[in-house]
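ok so I'm stuck.
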Amino acid sequence: MSVEFLKLRKEIRSRTRKAVEKLTFDAVNLIGIMVRKLNRNQARRFAFLVGDILHRVVGIRRKLVYRNLSLTFPEKSPDEIARIATGIYRNLAATLVEVLRLPHIRNRDDAAALVDIVECESFTEWKRNRKSGAVLISAHYGNWELMAMAFGLMSHPITIIVKRLRNQLIDQQMNQYRTLRGNSIVYSAQSVREGLRLLQNGGTLAILGDQSDPDEANFGEFLGRRATMFHGAAFFALRAKVPMFMPICTSNGDGRYTITVTEIPTSDLSFSKEDIATLATRYTRAIEEIIRRRPEEWFWLHDRWKRG
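replied:
not stuck anymore, here's the structure
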């Protein structure tokens, strides 16, 4: 092939990709306009309908979801697995709809109308004194995007480590939503320097630590199967010598949510490779316990064990 032909093919691919990204962005914005015109009950029913379509008609990653559920819960019948899967797709659609409705949350009262926060005593004490920063470790569970905004309004602003999305337009829109009401974001590529600086200055760093680690630096067990272990949150907490708390957002079943904040103990650990691994195991086990209790609220569409 000639150099000119290769250049032309590359340019066509680039233009096609940009056109698809723009079309996707416009479609998402159009859906956003629509769901913001619905009341909350209507939006919830719409989300469940979308979830059922994604599950039963489109079948997006359906084989992966059913396979992972069956391997994680071998004691459950096919009917039970199907019921959980229905909840998973509905929860995913509800989360997406809530993201598009985030502009409706303008202040603390708006957030409190949707979310309750239940704090452990140590977190309340830390907030009262605020002598140091803190690491918040959480998961793609419940409505994690709504949780971040509500937490920032009802507790205090946080900085969230995020991954850059492939669609640049949607990435920019998502980050605009995430920072609407006082929170800030930092991309994972810049997170080490910026995160440590934030913690040393008394800030709060939020990390979702339940997905596969692309660096494949550490391995362990997640929900009974070999998988990569995410050590980033443990590194930050022990390096900066700050406490670690775990906020988890769960659905109340009526369109409202509860954020429960617990502490992941760190006082017996120091900044060492062994203790980083120990702390990572602690919060991984805590996340596992929550997923096993209510599996329909976790993001099973992610191939968590692909690097195992």
